Amino acid sequence: MRTLKIILPGILLAGMVFMSCKSNPKQAKNEPAAIASISDDSLLTLIQRQTFDYFWDGAEPTSGMARERIHMDNIYPQNDQDVVTLGGSGFGVMAILVGLERGFITREQALERYRKIVEYLAKADRFHGAWPHWFDGPTGKVHPFSPKDDGGDLVETAFMIQGLLTVAEYFRDGNEAEKQLAADIDQLWRGVEWNWYTQGKDVLYWHWSPNYGWAMNFPVGGYNECLIMYVLAASSPTFPIKPEVYHKGWARDGKIARDTVYYGLNTVLDFYEHGNDPTGPLFWAHYSYLGLNPKGLSDKYADYWKLNQNQALIHYKYALDNPLKFEGYGPKQWGLTSSYSVNGYAGHHPGGEDLGVISPTAALSSFPYTPDESMQVAKYLYFEADSLVGKYGPYDAYSVSAKWYVPRYLAIDQGPIPVMIENYRSGLLWNLFMKNEDVQRGLKTLGFTVSQTTN
User: Domain range spanning residue 66?
Assistant: First the structure.
């Protein structure tokens, strides 16, 4: 066995023992040395520190942004270790704020990194204001995500803008350098041509390519992870969409409000648009809500706190029921989402693509919705499990049934963990993003009611 010793500001976390790397994620022997005697609060700080480090120490050096993936085994089948991810980096700029507030880095260090990121984005490829899903890190040129996905990605752009607007609010009233950062972020925000991505129709389209035009043909409607895109599109001070684009496109003329009951809980919105399954992968309750506070947020279609909390609880109850009888599922091991899988990558979710794979980001990023249930998962991963935690926090996914895990990370899975834990602890990111005057106006335009104050 090896002993993990980590020093955090004000805390000495020593004697936390993890078994050496194996291919079989099993429960460690019940020895006193394997149980770390630290408080729940200190455990959350440890998780935040490790996942923050993915975006700080693990960043691509030219851009300062997040690598798409980091493989601790140094095996990169796609040879993409220098590929930068836009959406994951949007989560990452919020994670850096967590690091600043928690004392992992100084304000000056954070400002320097943000300057690098913002200057990089100002020069990188953009397509009618939208950045691509992936960049080649050293050059800022588009790195195709798929054969025809070599242009603007409006959803990933929304994730980045969500993060940048949050950063701008943090620094807006600071010194001259900080005010300049906020002003430069504002220029990037104003450059996104949201309404152009409607093709003149009442819906937003996900992609556009200078080589293939609208060939991917992906109108975004029906509930998924993309609510933040519509909110930002309505909030734009320069290229806003009309409310009809939200109500007819995203909400599908009200059809999105079709409610069902699954494991005794209302789904609130219609998940069936994406197949025959009553709920989706759990990242749908995270990505749009890193800055957009679902507490007290509602419109004529949904109460968004109830929507997200119920989705997380459905995942929890599903694991307790374990209808497919996968080994390990239960109160300490729950939460299905898109992640690495036994045979590649999969969009794991209850009632659909359940392959016996647990993705730690699912439960850990759900702390605001299910604090007690999420803490059980955190304690299992850190105090009981064998080989499921590494340098940047819990590894991306594992399966007890298949005796499988990989020592690998994905930015889009690590990023929500420190951010949503911080929203649970202090409401930091929610409070900052919701202060933005453009966002407040956009929500009002779309008919949202916002009643939350602070966490």
Answer: 2-450
Within a domain: 169: yes
- The answer to the question of residue 455 being in a domain is no
Coil/strand/helix, residue 236:
coil
DSSP, residue by residue, 57-124: TTS-TTT-S-BSEEETT---TT--TTEEEHHHHHHHHHHHHHHHHTTSS-HHHHHHHHHHHHHHHHHS
Q: In this structure, what CATH number is given to the domain that contains residue 30?
A: 1.50.10.140
Full-model pTM:
0.93
With respect to residue 184, please indicate whether it lies within any of the assigned structural domains. Answer: yes
Q: How many domains does the chain have?
A: 1
Q: Please give the chain's pLDDT, 455 residues, in tens.
A: 222 333 333 332 333 322 223 344 544 333 333 345 699 999 999 999 999 999 999 999 999 999 999 999 999 988 888 999 999 999 999 999 999 999 999 999 999 999 999 999 999 999 999 999 999 999 999 999 999 999 999 999 999 999 999 999 999 999 999 999 999 999 999 999 999 999 999 999 999 999 999 999 999 999 999 999 999 999 999 999 999 999 999 999 999 999 999 999 999 999 866 667 889 999 999 999 999 999 999 999 999 999 999 999 999 999 999 999 999 999 999 999 999 999 999 999 998 899 999 999 999 999 999 999 999 999 999 999 989 999 999 999 999 999 999 899 999 999 999 999 999 999 999 999 999 999 999 999 999 999 865 45
Cβ–Cβ < 8 Å for 386, 19: yes
